[in-house]
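Pilot study result, target chain (393 residues):
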Amino acid sequence: MTKHTATEHGPAMAGTPACAQGHRATSTAHPPAHAAVHGLPRHNGRPVRLARLAAVVVTITALFAPAAARAAIMPPAPTGNAPVGYLRLTLTDSHRRDPVTPASGPRRVVLRVFYPAAAAGPSPAAVLDDAERPAFAAAFGVPPDPLIALGGPATIGARPAAGRHAVLLVSHGLGSSTAVLTADATELASHGYVVVGIEHPGDALAVDVGAGRVVGADPRGLEIVDLLYRTRVADVRFVLDRLATLRGAGRLDLGRVGGFGHSLGGAAMAGAMLADRRMRAGVDLDGRLFGPVIGRGLSRPFGIMVGDGPAMPSVTAFRRHAGGPHPLTRAAGTAHQAFTDLVWLAPQFGLDAATRVSVGLGTVDAAVAVARQRTWLLRFFDRHLRAGRRGGP
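Predicted structure:
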């Protein structure tokens, strides 16, 4: 596999959770990876050092906690017509021993599935379960209770909408979670997509793999990033194999499957598309790329959205070799973490503008960031996966 330096954007954790250095998950969990600082503010092109990061963590915690203690969060409302249903399941790959933590046995992945519903279900969706919320709360420096509302309007037990629906797989940033890509997931589901978020245990902030056993990020972080990348590509392909067995989210159109991811998650989608032609279109949100796809490109549509900062050599090389559509858009004022739900969580939890810049969110207004990313994703997949309902990039 081609080696790349750690001076490009990502692999990175989706923002503030990277700061959860002191969190200890239950049972066999690993502490969050110190390498997750890679996506945070830089000095001379390098990630901030842990001493500087510790100061940022203290600031985040001090500012978040007073506001969060008295406020419920209000996720951005989806713009589509369909109510959004939610379900969660854990898949076990009995043919693959977990390459990140071999002692844990067969590889398991957790899916967070958002789908278009005929009507709202009886109960709000808890995107983070009771075992996971304390870990995320510790990472954010907030009480656990406000995070119950992270799923926004999504509900459980909702009857799926009629018809066949294109599918979008989602992969999170290094040491992060698809739970903080929920605003994008609910938006796309409200417009008729089944969105399948893939949690990568051992490479996620904290994920309950069953019976309350929470697995956190491997502390080796960037030291094993090539292994994590290969594992993610294999996870995506395993989920592709199992999509036909997914029940409760409606009828899936398995001829129209795409995917997107943030940071290392975007790289994983590019790698999966190179390895597996079942993936028809993909998007990378501000992540450098890995492996053979850089030099070979893709013959199918693959879009890239980046924030402020210098061009990433791996992205430039990939686009030079891409034979299929490969739109690139730059989101002005947007730093690496603003491609996740942290961009709208931060102001609701009381972070002022200067602090949002210091923790890698940039200067972009939260509503602008959310609307711009949602619109771009929807237009891209409508054009390249769902036969162009509307014009797009």
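One observation from the pilot: The radius of gyration is 19 Å. A full batch analysis is planned for the follow-on phase.
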